[in-house]
Design a protein that fits this description.
The complex is a heterodimer of chains A (865) and B (252).
Chain A lengths: L1 H17 L1 H36 L8 E4 L5 E2 L1 H7 L5 E14 L8 E8 L12 E3 L8 H5 L3 E5 H7 L6 E6 L2 E11 L12 E5 H7 L5 E2 L1 E6 L5 H12 L4 E3 L1 H11 L1 H32 L1 H9 L4 H45 L12 H28 L2 H5 L10 H22 L4 H37 L2 H12 L1 H39 L4 E5 L15 H6 L4 E14 L2 E8 L1 H9 L6 E3 L14 E5 H7 L6 E4 L6 E9 L8 E5 H6 L8 E6 L5 H16 L5 E5 H15 L1 H28 L1 H9 L4 H43 L9 H28 L2 H6 L2
Parallel strand pairs in A: 4-9, 6-8, 15-20, 17-19
Antiparallel strand pairs in A: 1-11, 1-12, 2-10, 3-4, 3-11, 5-8, 6-9, 7-8, 13-21, 13-22, 14-15, 14-21, 16-19, 17-20, 18-19
Helix pairs in contact in A: 1-2, 1-11, 2-8, 2-9, 2-11, 2-12, 2-24, 9-12, 9-17, 9-24, 10-12, 11-12, 11-24, 14-15, 15-16, 15-17, 15-26, 16-17, 16-26, 17-23, 17-24, 17-26, 17-27, 24-26, 24-27, 26-27
Chain B lengths: L5 E15 L11 E15 L3 E5 L6 H8 L7 E6 L2 E2 L5 H11 E4 L11 H11 L4 H14 L15 H13 L5 E5 L7 H14 L5 E5 L3 H5 L3 E6 L2 E7 L12
Parallel strand pairs in B: 3-8, 3-9, 6-7, 7-8
Antiparallel strand pairs in B: 1-2, 1-4, 4-5, 9-10
Classes of the chains: A alpha+beta (865), B alpha/beta (252).
The structure holds adenosine-5'-triphosphate and magnesium ion.
Chain lengths: 865, 252
């Protein structure tokens, strides 16, 4: 044991203190690797947490929920439940609506969650406490009987500077309406849902305000004692028939999870690749440091230290470095995640309802994962070279290592074969119709690419070396050749950089392919010249519906040729949440007949007069058709407050508005089956020759008269709307862009590490170079050439491997996650940009080590061991 | 004697190192110590001389050679090479001086492992910006001179230790420098191979080319035209003798 302690003292600790640069490099390598993983994961987790917050809104302590579609469920169900207290011990009906609260005293307005609560029902479910003002939960009568009375959360009160008695303006189905704060709710329990931006109205007031008629959105149910959830669920469903669905609160969370699935998949994919890159970085840093100490291992062995003990010391050292580095990495990762999330929270909340700037937390599990990953990668990286070194005859390690330690031909062939196997397996997996198979294929392609990298490097280097010699000079050539010389070690950082580059191009390709299709689609999806919409048409997904009577006000505006009433319903169906677009199909298709309409993929173009009107028929989006194997002529049965109704599928159409599934039907059916008169928007057509912008401002003025100034109705010209959509489509992918940039930057740090280690290892050589007359700038040039060449190989391989990788993304993962088949486009420009920036970054990464090399005192360098 | 050109001149040269002692067992690495590697050396070497430097280990031989070779700067005193005061030259000028006027042969690790023998020999000229086509014949000629005409494409790890030293000598000679410096060039070689390498080095001296070499071997020193002995950083003896092997360029 004392021998071991001596070893630790003279070998490990001494190394740490006499070679501080090297030790720091290794430590930083581990830290960066872990930071990358933690950063990406924490970003994912906090964004997804924010999603979950939504599902968590106000379920209270209910065992079950009864939900309808967006049109809600009829209040008569409450009476049904009341007659069956042996099943539903307690229950309460509720309306849930996100709306817009006008900023108080010049503050910006914000989205709020409005709850309509039945204060005469069972209040047990409402875990609210009054913080200030009259206690409504004790005595509700006067609150319920005061029109415009509202309860707000403490957060809202604080943020908006509101107090008991304050007036506030809330958007309702009748435009902006004034409300008065009755009391303020304590900031706990469900008042914290939706980021604390919660506001409570009496149920009746909410029904009127949000044009619900006699419908409510959901009923929370607490089951009678002795009933299990499954039993209770079955009995309740039997009681209410098919007018609504009984769900466990977690089921709703599942649905939300599915709604955001393609987003999640993208995040997961980049997260897994981050793990790979992180492992590479760690492996690289540690393996380099151990390999460099082979001589030391040889000396130890020659003075009689056993193999096991040598390996033990090095592993112990690695464990310490792994733990310290990982701990540092966890902290760094948190900083990273905060940066990313801060940068992109606005985009996310824009796209997915209202996520209020997610808070970044690194969970205990994630911390443990990071530490374990760092430790594991570090030990693995230390184990192989130290074992190898310990097994060599001492004399072999003691020999001055003049050999180029390139990857041997045999292992090169093995790697190429492995890579081919990986690509082949990925191709096979792509055929399996399952998302996890798609993922597997994606990861395999990336790994196969990594395995291919050394071959690409060693194939191209001789040519590049000659070129470098001719074009730049002998120092550049030396640098270029150094890449293959230490291929075993440099290929790992080339591999990491390659992965980052490949990820970048692949995501670009994914973005590019979808963007192109989306932009084409949006041109066709909005045939009108102008939109009138409650809430911003691009931001608000669940907007406040308003009365169709407002149409007459718009129709009367000079220059308006006609309007089409738009309503969208969100309907739960099987495991999906379908988005149903209802409009006056006669008008819509009549206008479409004359244009070049390419939205129909399969089936006949709908004849305006009858196709969707005469009998219940719908257009179905491609992704829904793909997911559920639907064809024109098939029947799809949709639930409604009046029971399930079958619709014939008329044709399959292109639509990218939701990855869940989209349907288009005539307004007739939403009126008849769903009783939904209220509309969400209007398509407005302008008479030929009229100036659209001028008409738009006239429409705006006309609506202001009805709904009041800032009445919550947006009038947007189609041009502006499409512009905004384009912007959003580009932003959708911004978050993956961020992870891509982070991966790239971290990979470049890996290159800095490799280069510094390389410079250190070649100190004596640099001394010889300087002694025989290489100038400082020539030494710098050689190191920079080396790292630039490394970057070039990574970028080139990355761009190449991105072809199969993005094919898998677009044609396999994308289709499996969303059901959209979009044509694949290789992003030439992005690939070029990436190549140039990777080479530039890599060259820059070589600069610091290059300067260090140039600054070496020649004499010291020559004496260096 | 007086008409001879002075190639190297050292005037009251000292060199001291202030360094933390690192390798003490126990790890007390805090005490600073000043090592006086050279304590006032004055000497001049004429063009064409073949000088051997001897002395016990740690006496300052390598330190002195490094100063002569413009690899390091003296703490005090003046070092002149070809009449030029190295103290007045910047790093760029020192580098150019090494490249154009000095050839080095070290004990080991002379060659760049990624380059072939020929490329190693060509390197100094290429670094100076000469065209490949111009350098190549000269470098091949040098390799033939050291008897490696058949090995020009070999990489260092494919060569024996003696062959590597011969490549190093060919490289030292490629720019036809007036000064060759060698620090224990045979220290790593067996006696016979060492002989061969020495023949080459000795053969290089003459006309106006000066050769300075460090050795521990008194038999080698005996063949030099002049033997300088160092001890504790000072010149303790400086003897000119009749060279036995090399043609005497300038008989005293
Ligand atoms: N970089 C340095 N830092 C501190 N001390 C040094 C350094 N280089 C040399 N020395 C010291 O200077 C003295 C002279 O060293 P030098 O290398 O010149 O000796 P040497 O005569 O060449 O010995 P050897 O025959 O063993 O090669 C020694 O005491 C040595 O420890
Ligand atoms: Mg010495």
């Amino acid at each position: 044991m004392s021998g071991f302690r001596a070893l630790v003292r003279f070998v490990s600790l001494r190394h740490l203190f006499t070679r501080p640069v090297r030790s720091t490099l290794t430590l930083l390598g581990v830290a960066f690797g872990v930071a990358l993983v933690i950063g990406m994961r924490a970003t994912n987790e906090s964004v997804l947490d924010a999603f979950d917050q939504l599902s968590d809104r106000a379920a209270g302590k209910a065992d079950l929920e009864i939900v309808g579609d967006e049109a809600g469920i009829d209040m008569s169900l409450l009476e049904v439940l009341d007659d069956h207290r042996e099943v539903a011990k307690h229950f309460a009906g509720r309306i849930e609506q996100t709306s817009y609260l006008k900023g108080n005293g010049g503050k910006p307005g914000l989205r709020v969650l409005v709850l309509g609560v039945d204060f005469f029902g069972d209040l047990d479910f409402l875990p609210f406490k009054t913080a200030k003002g009259p206690d409504v939960f004790g005595d509700a009568i006067s609150f319920v009987n005061t029109p415009g009375a509202v309860l707000i959360s403490e957060t809202l009160a604080r943020d908006q500077g509101l107090d008991v008695g304050s007036a506030m303006w809330l958007r309702t189905g009748e435009g902006l309406r004034e409300f008065k704060v009755w009391s303020v709710l304590a900031d706990d329990g469900k008042a914290r849902a939706f980021g604390g931006q919660v506001l409570i109205l009496n149920l009746d007031a909410a029904q009127v305000g949000f044009v619900r008629g006699t419908n409510i959105d959901r009923i929370d149910v607490e089951l009678a004692p002795g009933l299990t959830r499954d039993e209770g669920r079955a009995r309740l469903q039997a009681l209410i028939g098919d007018k609504a669905r009984v769900e466990t609160p977690s089921k709703r969370a599942d649905q939300l999870a599915r709604m955001t699935s393609s987003f999640r998949y993208g995040m997961q994919m980049s997260g897994s690749i981050a793990v790979l890159i992180g492992m590479f970085l760690i492996y690289n840093a540690v393996a380099v440091s151990v390999t460099e100490r082979r001589r030391e291992i040889g000396i130890l062995r020659s003075v009689g230290v056993s193999r096991g003990r040598v390996a033990g010391v090095f592993l112990a050292e690695a464990a310490v470095i792994g733990l310290v580095g990982s701990a540092f990495g966890v902290v760094l990762g948190r900083v990273l995640a905060t940066q990313i999330v801060g940068e992109f929270a606005p985009t996310v909340s824009r796209l997915f309802e209202n996520i209020n700037a997610p808070r970044v937390t690194v969970s205990r599990n994630l911390t443990l994962f990071g530490l374990a990953l760092g430790l594991f990668a570090t030990l693995g990286a230390a184990w192989l070279p130290s074992r190898e070194a310990a097994h060599l005859q001492p004399v072999e390690t003691l020999r001055r290592d003049l050999h180029a330690t390139g990857v041997r031909r045999r292992s090169m062939r093995g790697l190429v074969a492995l890579s081919a196997l990986g690509f082949g397996l990925a191709a096979a997996l792509s055929q399996v119709q399952h998302l996890s198979a798609g993922f597997g294929a994606g990861i395999l392609v990336f790994l196969a690419g990594v395995a291919l990298t050394p071959a690409v490097v060693s194939l191209l280097t001789p040519v590049a070396a000659q070129l470098a010699l001719r074009v730049v000079g002998p120092s550049a050539r030396l640098g270029v050749e150094n890449v293959t010389r230490e291929l075993a070690r440099s290929s790992i950082s080339v591999g990491a950089l390659m992965l980052a580059a490949c990820l970048s191009v692949t995501l670009s390709s994914y973005t590019h392919s979808y963007e192109k299709s989306c932009l084409e689609w949006i041109e066709q999806a909005i045939p009108a010249d102008m939109l009138v919409h409650a809430g911003s048409p691009t931001i608000d997904r669940e907007s406040v519906a308003y009365s169709p009577e407002w149409r007459s006000w718009v129709d009367a505006v000079p220059g308006v040729e006609g309007t089409n009433l738009i309503r969208s319903l969100s309907i739960p169906w099987e495991d999906l949440r379908l988005e149903v677009l209802s409009l006056e199909s006669y008008d819509y298709f009549r206008r479409m007949e004359t244009s070049e309409y390419r939205r129909i993929l399969d089936g006949p173009f709908p004849t305006p007069r009858d196709a969707l009107v005469k009998e219940p028929a719908v257009l179905v989006s491609e992704n829904l058709a793909w997911k559920k194997r639907l064809k024109p002529g098939d029947t799809i049965t949709l639930p409604s407050p009046t029971g399930p109704h079958p619709f014939t599928i008329h044709a399959i159409a292109v639509d990218y508005s939701t990855d869940q599934g989209w349907l288009m039907m005539d307004r007739r059916w939403t009126l008849e089956y769903w009783g939904q008169e209220a509309i969400e928007g209007m398509h407005v057509y302008v008479k030929p020759g009229e100036d659209v912008d001028a008409v738009a401002s006239r429409v705006r003025a006309a609506l202001a008269e009805v709904a009041g100034d800032d009445g919550g109705l947006f009038v947007t010209t189609a041009r502006v709307f499409k512009e905004e959509i384009r912007h959003i489509i580009r932003q959708t992918f911004a978050i993956s862009k961020a992870s891509e940039v982070v991966a790239l930057v971290v990979a470049v740090f890996g290159v800095v590490g490799t280069m510094l280690a390389g410079v250190l290892a070649r100190t004596r050589e640099i001394g010889v170079l300087r002694a025989i007359g290489a100038k400082r700038h020539q030494v710098v040039a050689s190191v920079v050439a080396e790292s630039a060449w490394l970057g070039f190989c990574a970028a080139l391989t990355g761009a190449l491997v991105a072809v199969p990788a993005s094919l898998v993304f677009v044609h396999v993962i994308g289709v499996q996650a969303s059901g959209w088949h979009v044509p694949f486009h290789y992003p030439w420009l992005a690939a070029l940009r990436m190549t140039v920036s990777v080479i530039a970054l890599a060259a820059a990464a070589g600069f610091v080590p290059g300067l260090r090399a140039a600054r070496l005192v020649v004499q010291d360098a020559l004496a260096y061991e | 004697m007086s008409d001879q050109v002075v190639a190297i001149e050292l005037l009251e040269v000292t060199k001291s190192y202030a360094s933390a002692i690192e390798d003490q067992p126990g790890g007390e690495s805090s005490d600073e110590a000043v090592v006086h590697a050279l304590r006032g050396v004055t000497l001049s070497i004429h063009a064409g001389e073949l000088v051997a430097i001897i002395g016990p280990s740690g006496s300052g031989k390598s330190t002195m050679l490094n100063l002569i070779g413009a690899l390091d700067r003296a703490t005090t005193g003046t070092v002149r090479i070809g009449g030029e005061d190295l103290g007045n030259l910047g790093d760029g000028a020192l580098t150019a001086l090494r490249r154009d006027r000095i050839g080095f042969v070290f004990q080991f690790f002379n060659l760049l492992p990624t380059l072939s023998a020929l490329e190693n020999v060509m390197l100094p000229s290429l670094l100076a910006g000469e065209k490949l086509g111009a350098v190549r014949p000269r470098a091949e000629e040098r390799l033939r001179q050291v008897g490696l005409g058949q090995r020009i494409g070999h990489r260092p790890h494919q060569l024996s230790g003696g062959e590597m030293q011969r490549v190093a000598i060919a490289r030292a000679l490629v720019n036809d420098p007036p000064l060759i410096l060698a620090d224990e060039p045979t220290g790593n070689l067996d006696t016979r191979t060492g002989e061969e390498v020495l023949e080459l080095l000795f053969g290089a001296a003459g006309a106006r080319r000066t050769v300075v070499l460090i050795t521990h071997d008194p038999r080698i020193a005996a063949r030099a035209s002049r033997v300088i002995t160092l001890r504790d950083g000072q010149v303790v003896s400086d003897e000119r003798s009749r060279p036995a092997a090399a043609p005497a360029p300038a008989a005293p």
